[in-house]
Amino acid sequence: MMKVRKFAAIDIGSNAVRLLISNVLEVDGASPVFSKSSLVRVPIRLGTDVFLNGKVSDENAERLAESMKAFKLLMGVHKVEAYKACATSAMREAKNGEELTKLIKKKSGVQINIIDGSDEAAIIANTDLQALIEGDKAYLYVDVGGGSTEFTVYSNGETIASKSFKIGTVRILNEMVKHETWVEVEQWIRENTKDFSKISLIGSGGNINKIFKISGKKEGTPLTYKYLSSYYQFLMSFSYEERISILGLNQDRADVIIPAARIYISAMKWSKAIKIYVPKIGLSDGIVKSLYYSTIEGNKVVDTE
């Protein structure tokens, strides 16, 4: 007997807000199959507000509330049985973050959970990441966001070290990352990868997904350090306007893709990795999986009204 269930994840990031609606296919005696039903992305750059002024502006608070109303309606017409909304770096640091979650709950009915960097890394670990990690190999997982980047070292299928740094694309664009922070990240990566003679990166985030898509590589095939470096130089040879008009990048992608590439390239250099794998995984996927498995275990996770 086959059954299709629907779950949703809302990811409120520093660069954009996303709604992922997933189908979960249940067949007797088989593992569940997760597939994307719908993905909606709204480019509300909360990070620019928060990292420069310490709070979400009234205009963006209104845009966020309206987005949540729209997401609630979409989840309703898709007949989603459970959802969870998580906010990361920007909302974490906003002076009016908690106040805003209460306002949005009142206006849209959507309950937003503000999570920290370690929670974010744990949720992402609920994705297919474990299936990608070959037991006898070492990996540095790098998840680049607008406000922060999560780094995790895996070896023999085990987590060796994990840390979140306030180094993200929106912060870099606004020149808010000090030289000392780059040095701290470099030292952490070098220290935690020095025992591995051969290590590969696993990259996640919208920017590396876009670079991988443009590369035309077959899914599962890694990008090389040489390719990523040369593509970075290629992007740098265009102005912001040209990246939109000539390369066809979205307005809110054409600027952040540069600092994102810089973070991945730096991580590869400091860990001495020559390959980066780009699976389609992220916070939204992790939220959906944790939601689904919690319903199987009989735990109530969210309001689904």
In short:
This protein is of the alpha/beta class.
Describe the structure.
- With 305 residues, the protein is an alpha/beta fold.
- The protein has 14 helices and 11 strands.
- It has a 6-stranded mixed β-sheet with strand order 8-7-6-9-11-10, sandwiched between helices. Strands 3-2-1-4-5 form a 5-stranded mixed β-sheet.
- Helix 2 packs across helix 4, helix 8 packs across helix 13 and helix 10 runs antiparallel to helix 13.
- The two termini are 28 Å apart.
- The C terminus is likely disordered.
Topology, element by element:
Elements lengths: L1 E11 L4 E11 L5 E10 L3 H8 L4 H20 L4 E6 L1 H5 L3 H12 L3 E3 L2 H8 L4 H4 L5 E7 L4 E7 L2 E8 L3 H5 L5 H15 L5 E6 L1 H10 L7 E2 H12 L3 H6 L5 H4 L2 H15 L3 E3 L5 H14 L9
Parallel strand pairs: 1-4, 4-5, 6-9, 9-11
Antiparallel strand pairs: 1-2, 2-3, 6-7, 7-8, 10-11
Helix pairs in contact: 2-4, 5-14, 8-13, 10-13
